[in-house]
C-alpha cells in the first residue's frame, strides 16, 4: 500500500478520535475495569475502521484500465492479450484478471440424456455449463501513466460452438 498525504491524514484523524473517546470514558466512567474494557473495545473498533478507510482510499486512487484487448482461438485454448494501463496517481503492485468465457450459441440437448440404461442414477442429468470463470493473478509494478502487457491462456470447452469473453480487472 502506498502511503500518501490522505492516508496519513486519515490515520491521524482515527488516532485523534480514539484519544477523544478514551478521554470521554475517563471523564464519565468511574470504575477502572469498565474504563479498560471500553478502551480496549474502542481500540479494536477504531483499528478496523482505520484499516477499512485506508483500503477505501487505496481503491479510490488506484485506477487501471484494460487497453488493446485481443483474443483468438487456438486448437484447444483461447489466447488473451491486453495492456494494463495505470491511469491513477499511485503505483500498482498486483492485479487480478477475472475472465468469464460464455457460450454464444447454446445447443439444444437431445433425448440421449434420458437413457437410463447407461447409468443407475437417472436423477442426475449431465448438463453442460454455458459459462466458466477463471482468475489470473499478476505481480507487476506499474508506475503512474505507464502500462504493462498481460497474457492469459483460457481453456476452451469442447461443447462450445462460439464464445464471448467478459473481463474484469482489479488492482492493489
Description:
The chain has 172 residues and is an alpha+beta fold. It folds into 2 domains: 5-61; 65-171, Immunoglobulin-like (Sandwich), CATH 2.60.40. It starts with a helix and ends with a strand. The strands form 2 sheets. Strands 1-2-5 form a 3-stranded antiparallel beta sheet, with no helix packed on it. α1 (5-28) runs antiparallel to α2 (32-61). Helix content is 31%, strand content 36%. It has 2 helices and 6 strands. The longest helix is centred in the N-terminal third of the chain and has 30 residues, at 32-61. The mean pLDDT is 84.
How are the elements arranged and paired?
Layout: H1 5-28, H2 32-61, E1 64-73, E2 77-86, E3 92-103, E4 131-142, E5 147-155, E6 163-171
Antiparallel strand pairs: 1-2, 2-5, 3-4, 3-6
Helix pairs in contact: 1-2
CATH superfamily of the largest domain: Lipoprotein YajI-like
Number of strands: 6
Trace the largest sheet across and list its strands: 1-2-5
Principal-axis shape: elongated
Query: What's the helix count?
Result: 2
Amino acid at each position: 500500500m502506498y502511503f500518501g498525504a490522505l492516508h496519513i491524514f486519515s490515520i491521524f484523524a482515527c488516532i485523534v478520535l480514539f484519544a477523544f473517546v478514551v478521554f470521554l470514558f475517563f471523564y464519565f466512567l468511574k470504575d477502572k475495569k469498565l474504563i479498560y474494557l471500553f478502551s480496549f473495545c474502542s481500540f479494536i473498533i477504531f483499528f478496523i475502521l482505520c484499516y477499512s478507510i485506508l483500503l477505501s482510499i487505496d481503491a479510490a486512487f488506484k485506477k487501471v484500465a484494460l487497453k488493446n484487448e485481443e483474443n483468438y482461438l487456438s486448437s484447444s485454448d483461447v489466447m488473451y492479450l491486453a495492456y494494463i494501463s495505470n491511469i491513477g496517481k499511485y503505483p500498482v503492485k498486483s492485479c487480478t484478471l477475472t475472465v468469464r468465457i460464455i457460450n454464444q450459441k447454446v445447443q439444444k440437448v437431445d433425448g440421449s440424456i434420458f437413457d437410463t440404461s447407461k447409468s443407475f442414477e437417472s436423477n442426475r442429468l449431465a448438463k453442460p455449463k454455458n459459462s466458466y470463470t477463471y482468475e489470473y493473478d499478476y505481480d507487476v509494478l506499474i508506475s503512474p501513466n505507464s502500462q504493462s502487457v498481460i497474457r492469459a491462456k483460457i481453456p476452451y470447452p469442447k461443447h462450445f460452438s462460439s464464445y464471448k469473453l467478459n473481463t474484469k480487472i482489479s488492482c492493489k
